[in-house]
Amino acid sequence: MTVKITEEMIFSPSFNYLDNGIEHGVLSPFETKEVILKKGQQIAEGFKPLSCDIKMLKDTPVTLRDGVTIYADIYLPVTEEKVPTLIAWSPYGKSAGTAPRYKNLFNMLGMGNAWNSGLTKFEAPDPAYWVQHGYAVCNPDMRGIAHSEGNTTMLGSQEAQDGYDLIEWLAAQSWSNGKTALTGTSYLAFSQWYIAAEMPPHLTCINPTEGLSDGYRDLAFIGGIPDTNFIERLAVNHVSAKHAQREDLAKEMQSAPLADAPIWQDKVADPSQITIPAFVIASYSNTLHTMGTFRSWRTLGSKEKWLRIHDCQEWPYYYDQENTEELRRFFDFYLLGKDNDWLTTPKVRYSIIDFKGTNQTDIPATTFPPTESVTTKYYLNGQSRTLQLTPEQNDLPVSYLAGGLPGRTSFQMTFDQDTQFVGYPKAKLFMSVTDYNDLDVFVWIQKLDRRGNVLSEFVVPNHGAALQDFTQEGASALRYKGAWGRLRASMRNLDTKLTTPEIPAYTFDQVNKLTENEIVALDIVLSPLGLAYKAGETLRVVISSKDELGSVMPGTPGCTPDNHGTHTVHTGGQYASYIQLPLLNK
């Protein structure tokens, strides 16, 4: 491998690649060839027939700078005109659009599969649509995946350099107009932060649609609390037909638990290095991606950048017809040189959620938060369990038994007029613990209706009983319940270079355990929000010893807190805990 950091990685055997034309899609059997897929052809039952003829360059070899060969499927218009290329970089199988696991996933979400051609790599653009409109689509199997050579790494400089090499290879092909773009959701979004920061000369623009940007802070140790469950779920995608090795992040978490380890430093994206145009898509609701997407947006070096904050889950958003048409306006302008109205698009469009089916969306602004948002402190009152604009003169501590019943405490305020919050919230909590030397704290901002019922909303089409079950205490990416944050007290050290009055940031490079009854200040970053309250409705802040939101996706457990003893929240005097919210003044 070309990147030195790979010498410090821990590798385990990849999972076996079953090349039977079913497990990884009907087009997965390996064969380097050129084939014409005909208009009207149906790739597999239940998928949309092709809308035009497509030239498929199947299992095309691409040699990287260290001599490793990876393979890609490339879809082209049947034309002599040179075309730009959209690239979908991820470990998810390049031919797996018809794989049972993805068919079942989209059926479970209520999307079905008739919206795509079956050529669509998971979380990637549908080649049938884009080829019809004059684009090539490249679906690579990255290093170590399926028949591609080498060992698989996960995030960081190795993927970034490999993506660079693929971009430059594509731009040099006889059918290419020399322009390329990265697009896609989730893994296909966060890989863009790393690849684009390498500044490949022929990368023209990017479209990250919800993706984390820091392997430590956004994935492995959110709030300093380790969670291997979702990482192990991701690892099963590292399948090889050539007995490759895969980077084992779960083992690396054990061997390098602090963020200053080189292995984790390599997994911090630097969007400030990205100067090309960027159309960034975000939401408030994705407990895996929201923090990283907004962080990358804030630090993005591009002068031409747009942010759109939608109100659903990333997959229904990305494949929605109107949203795809808008994305094509962006790509048409930069990749095809079309004189359209893209530059009139507002630089920021945000949403305000009300949990009642009447969300406000695409509200134009020049910044996020909008200039009308004012940070406002609401202090915790330990006696009345309310929130108020002024702190109490004396400390009124509130305690709960960690892991017991209820294992949490909460504070509320009911609004006497319509109120909206848009921007970055945070919690400043003074806490102590008895009978232990640490505490994991989970904070959740809820909305209650006039009768005190806790509100939430599905962000996927399926609202059925099974999804109700999964999302009641889990599958948080599918059901939005309000802003959230978490922090391990021993990992509370703030990064003074990155912390702002609105957004705490942590070094995660030292462990400072608590002594018995020691009161410590915890600055807890909460996820961005746009939330509306009508007069008579209530905002509730929950402070808990448990991961109340649960796992990211169905079938995967959430993190396991390290909590014992009694937690105490201090609420007055020199320990005036508060929630800071971005109050929208309009």
Q: So what's the overall shape? A: globular
SSE class: alpha+beta
Total beta-strand segments: 31
Instruction: Tell me the major beta sheet.
Output: 11 strands, mixed
Helix content: 10-25%
- Round the Cα radius of gyration to an integer and report it: 24 Å
> What is the strand arrangement across the widest sheet?
3-4-5-7-6-8-9-12-13-14-15
Q: Number of helical runs? A: 12
Query: How much strand content do the residues show?
Result: 25-35%
The low-confidence runs, each spanning 5 or more residues with pLDDT under 50, are none
Describe it.
With 586 residues, the protein is an alpha+beta fold. The chain is built from 12 helices and 31 strands. Strands 3-4-5-7-6-8-9-12-13-14-15 form an 11-stranded mixed sheet, with helices on both faces. The radius of gyration is 24 Å and the shape is globular. The termini are far apart.
Can you summarize this structure?
The chain has 586 residues and is an alpha+beta fold.
Secondary structure topology:
Blueprint: E1 11-13, E2 15-16, E3 33-37, E4 54-63, E5 69-77, E6 83-87, H1 100-109, H2 127-132, E7 136-141, H3 157-171, E8 176-185, H4 187-197, E9 203-209, H5 216-220, H6 229-235, E10 239-240, E11 245-247, H7 249-255, H8 262-265, E12 278-283, H9 290-299, E13 305-310, H10 314-319, H11 321-335, E14 348-352, E15 360-365, E16 373-381, E17 386-388, E18 398-401, E19 408-414, E20 419-423, E21 426-434, E22 440-448, E23 457-458, H12 465-472, E24 479-480, E25 484-488, E26 520-525, E27 529-533, E28 538-544, E29 566-572, E30 575-576, E31 578-584
Parallel strand pairs: 2-10, 6-7, 6-8, 8-9, 9-12, 12-13, 13-14
Antiparallel strand pairs: 1-11, 3-4, 4-5, 5-7, 14-15, 16-17, 16-31, 18-29, 19-28, 20-27, 21-26, 21-29, 21-31, 22-25, 22-28, 23-24, 29-30
